[in-house]
Design a protein that fits this description.
single chain; 246 residues; alpha+beta; three-stranded antiparallel beta sheet; 8 helices; elongated
Length: 246
C-alpha cells in the first residue's frame, strides 16, 4: 500500500505542509504516526485533498466539508451528491445577494463620479454642488445587526488565513487614520473608486468566512469610511486585523 510522508504528500498534491497539518487538526485528513513520530498519510490522501479543495472552491465551510467526507467514506456517490446539492444552492443564493450589493454600490459610485465631473460652482460648496453626497450613498454590507448572534468562528485556516490577514493589513496600512467606535473601529481612507471597490470586495469575502464581522462603507467626496464591528468575544480578532483596541 502506498503511503506518504507529509513532505511527499505536499509535493504530490501541491498543498503546503502547514495546510496539511491544519486539515489533520480539523479532522479532515487523518494521518498515522511512524514509531519515530512522523506523519504518514494513506493512499487515498491525494484524492481526499482533491475533494477538500473542490469543496472549498464552492465556498463550503470546514464543518460542511467534514460532514461530506463522512458521507463519502461510505463509498457511494449518490448520498454525497444529495448532500452537496443543497449546499451549492445555498451558496448560489448567498453569492447572488453579494453581487446585488456590490452592483448597487458600483452604481452609486458611478453616480457620484458623474456628479463630481460636472462644472464646479464659482463660490463655496453648497447643498447642490455634489461634494456632499446623499446619506443613502452609505452602503452596509450586512443587515441590521445579525452579527451579534453569530458564533465567533472562521472557516479559513493555514495558508489561506495567513493570506487573508496579509490582505487586510496591506489595506489597513493605507488608512489615513483610525477611530474607536462602539463595538469596533472606523478606518478613514483617501477617496477613490478603485479603493472603495477593493474594500467592498474584501469585506464581502470576509463575511463569507467570518460572519460575525459587520462592515459598513460610507463614501464622501473627500474620504472613504470603513466601519468594522464585531461581538465583544471577537475583540482580539478585530484588533489583529484592523488595529482596534482589544
Amino acid at each position: 500500500m502506498t503511503s506518504y510522508r507529509i513532505s511527499q504528500l505536499a509535493e504530490r498534491s501541491g498543498v503546503p505542509a502547514t495546510t496539511l497539518r491544519f486539515y489533520e487538526d480539523a479532522g479532515l485528513l487523518p494521518a498515522d504516526r511512524t514509531p519515530a513520530g512522523y506523519r504518514v498519510y494513506g493512499q487515498d490522501a491525494v484524492e481526499r485533498l482533491a475533494f477538500i479543495s473542490s469543496a472549498k472552491l464552492l465556498g463550503l465551510t470546514l464543518e460542511e466539508i467534514r460532514e461530506l467526507l463522512d458521507v463519502r467514506e461510505e463509498g457511494v456517490c449518490a448520498p454525497v451528491r444529495a448532500r452537496l446539492l443543497p449546499l451549492v444552492a445555498e451558496r448560489i443564493t448567498e453569492t447572488g445577494a453579494r453581487i446585488t450589493e456590490l452592483r448597487a454600490f458600483a452604481a452609486r459610485l458611478a453616480a457620484a463620479r458623474a456628479e463630481l465631473s460636472g462644472p464646479a460652482p464659482e463660490g463655496a460648496c453648497g447643498p447642490d454642488c455634489g461634494c456632499t453626497t446623499d446619506p443613502g450613498l452609505a452602503t452596509s454590507l450586512s443587515q441590521d445587526q445579525p452579527w451579534r448572534d453569530v458564533p465567533v468562528a472562521c472557516t479559513l485556516g493555514g495558508s489561506e488565513l495567513d493570506e487573508r490577514t496579509g490582505q487586510w493589513r496591506q489595506l489597513v496600512s493605507q488608512a489615513d487614520r483610525r477611530e474607536e467606535i462602539p463595538d469596533g473601529i472606523r478606518l478613514v481612507f483617501p477617496a477613490g473608486a478603485d479603493l472603495a471597490g477593493e474594500i467592498a470586495t474584501l469585506a464581502a469575502a470576509e463575511q463569507g468566512c467570518c460572519a460575525f464581522f459587520d462592515f459598513t462603507l460610507h463614501l464622501t467626496p473627500s474620504a472613504l469610511h470603513l466601519e468594522v464591528r464585531a461581538p465583544e468575544s471577537a475583540a482580539k480578532v478585530l484588533a489583529d486585523l484592523f488595529g482596534a483596541t482589544a
